[in-house]
Design goal:
Elements lengths: L2 E7 L17 E2 L7 H14 L2 H10 L5 H7 L9 E11 L2 E7 L4 E4 L2 E8 L15 E4 L12 E2 L1 H8 L6 H4 E2 L5 E3 L2 E7 L4 E10 L2 E3 L8 E9 L2 H4 L3 E5 L4 E7 L9 H7 L2 E5 L14 E4 L2 E6 L2 E9 L4 E3 L2 E2 L4 E2 L3 E3 L5 E9 L1 H9 L1 H4 L5 H5 L5 E4 L1
Parallel strand pairs: 2-12
Antiparallel strand pairs: 1-14, 1-16, 3-4, 3-14, 4-8, 5-6, 6-7, 8-9, 10-13, 11-12, 15-16, 17-25, 17-26, 18-19, 19-20, 20-25, 21-24, 22-23
Organism: Ectothiorhodospira mobilis
Protein name: CRISPR-associated protein, Cmr3 family
Pfam families: Cas_Cmr3
Length: 384
């Protein structure tokens, strides 16, 4: 059973990107929404922070002696039952919680609206990638226009997109500025031994200020789904979130995620797979379960199979982080960005088995360690 939490920041938040910086005058870019590992680490730290003795044990030994905490948190290498299932920027309006989704890779926002990328057989002479698939995702719009970046799909727009419909920009897109704004901050490098400012080392970093709660109770925050930690997160509390450990309040909420359109998938025998969080895949940009057979790529799972015909995604990202228990940086890994879309045809077998494979984090791809899986990577949604 997934426990849903609404997390509302008290101050501006600082979520570091993975572009290195630190020299005098450099700028540290931020990300919004944050990586799922940031939220998972904040929640695990909040659980430990409520048990000071267990916190010291975990810091020294990498495990807790308390059997209930040990079952939930496990060790840094072998997590317990705790697992981040979902992370969304969200709004609370009239007592309801609305997850907001960045535009997936198969939707392009132009000045006149939203337009889809549709898989088509490539024309002769078209330049193909190193692993050509039978089809290429091409933009379909009536005229040439400049792309317009940003924006989040409302729950209604997301449901329409999952059904295979094209959302309307005027009704189904929320502007970034209505949810959060960039809050740049000036920083000064410090000498840890002398405890003084280092001469000439001034830099700026991106912070993000989420829209504060309005007089009608509308508020912006994060909607997070967590498994295996109900006993420790079922009450309201505070956590340290992002750089500088800025405060954020959290509490359990009633929420039911959108069910995948399995009837349409079973009827048409084709579907899309949309990454909700970055993907760590043994096959580079393809999940481990997709194997090349001759000139085709097949997804093979327990009780189902399907043929991959096309994919669309942005530039690969890099994730790393800091291991607080070992006090060292985590290995840098290349990931497929959230919002990547994979088109499949010729589905054979049980759509329910396909849905179970997706819910299990794409069947535990060997490139995604147990620790990264618990942090929420490789989460995806099925769409018609």
């Amino acid at each position: 059973m997934t426990l849903w939490l609404f997390i509302q920041p008290v101050d501006s938040l600082f979520f570091r990107g993975n572009l290195s910086f630190g020299e005098a005058g450099e700028h540290g870019t931020g990300t919004m929404p944050p990586q799922p590992s940031v939220m998972a680490g904040a929640l695990r730290s909040a659980i430990l922070g409520a048990h000071p003795e267990a916190l010291h044990q975990f810091t020294r030994e990498g495990r807790c002696q308390d059997p209930h905490l040990a079952q939930c948190l496990g060790t840094p290498q072998k997590p317990g039952t705790f697992r981040l299932r979902a992370l969304h920027l969200a709004r609370r309006r009239q007592g309801q919680y609305e997850p907001l989704h960045p535009l997936p890779a198969d939707l392009v926002r132009l000045e006149s609206g939203l337009y889809p990328l549709i898989p088509q057989s490539p024309d002769p002479g078209m330049i193909l990638g190193p692993q050509p698939l039978p089809k290429t995702a091409l933009l379909h719009c009536p005229r040439t226009e400049k792309p317009r970046g940003g924006g989040y799909l409302t729950p209604e727009g997301w449901r329409a997109h999952l059904r295979g419909e094209i959302p309307e920009a005027s009704r189904h897109v929320v502007e970034d500025g209505a949810l959060h704004r960039t809050d740049p901050r000036l920083g000064i490098g410090l000498d840890p031994r002398a405890r003084t400012a280092r001469e000439g080392l001034i830099y700026t970093t991106d912070g993000h200020a989420l829209t504060p709660e309005g007089p009608d109770g509308t508020a912006t925050g994060f909607l997070v789904g967590v498994d295996g930690a109900d006993a420790f997160l079922e009450r309201e509390g505070l956590l340290r979130l992002g750089g500088d450990g800025r405060a954020a309040g959290f509490g359990p909420v009633d929420f039911e995620p959108e069910a995948p359109p399995l009837e349409a998938i079973a009827r048409n025998r084709r579907f899309r797979l949309i990454l909700d969080t970055p993907g760590l895949f043994a096959g580079g940009h393809l999940p481990q379960a997709i194997q090349q057979q001759g000139d085709q790529h097949w997804l093979q799972g327990e009780g189902f199979s399907a043929r991959l015909t096309c994919c669309a995604h942005g530039r690969p990202g890099i994730i790393s982080g800091w291991d607080l228990q070992q006090w060292c940086p985590k290995p840098a890994r290349r990931v497929v960005p959230a919002g990547a879309v994979y088109w499949f045809e010729d589905l054979q077998g049980d759509p329910e088995a396909l849905a179970a494979w997706v819910a299990d984090g794409l069947a535990r791809d060997r490139a995604c360690s147990e620790a990264r899986r618990a942090e929420g990577y490789n989460q995806a949604t099925l769409a018609a």
